[in-house]
Amino acid sequence: MTKIINEIRKELKENSDEKIQKSGQTFFKEKVKTYGIKTALGIKIGKDYFNIIKEKSKKEIFALCDELWLSGYMEESFIACNWSYYLHEEYKETDWAVFKRWLEKYVNNWASCDTLCNHTIGSFLEMYPSYVKELKMWAKSKNRWMRRGAAVSLIIPAKKGMFLKDIFEIAEILLLDEDDLVQKGYGWMLKAASQAHEKEVFDFVIAHKQTMPRTALRYAIEKMPKPLKEKAMAK
Question: What is the pTM of this model?
């Protein structure tokens, strides 16, 4: 099992680029471990190796994902996220504990958080909607990535018009969060929800505009028509 991980790491190192590594760091306030390869190439490498292992059981593939997460390298976390998402048709309720552990234990930057939450966790929630209530507990966590994850896990379902009541409840829990990455996360969630429920999201923003941080507010109204944006931004 470790052999395939070593082969992936060898290929990632061979394709590393110091310029990409340095420019990539500018997107993060915290120090991130990266090989410095283009995202599209990293996805291709991950997909190529998934095709080699895809006959293995989900349990075995998730164990490989754990090995990838353990390295701390962002590109390896992306491969782990993509592998877990490729198996989304096989998700069982017991997988929730696995995904939560990855978020809680391994995620240390917004890119890994969003890749895991948007696709893997978002797909799980569409299959098992009762777990959305768990996100409300994440929203109260001391871990900033759990709090951001509470919001960004609903991005794709929100675009489909799902979970609007829960989205507003999570946004209210996170409303005064001082972490700008959490503010951006719940603002993004509201923006996604506005694609199917523009009036409801606009009304929510207007009701909370006096206390909502401007960062979150700007994200929330980004897709709205100009007159609504102007009304929301007015003092």
Answer: 0.95
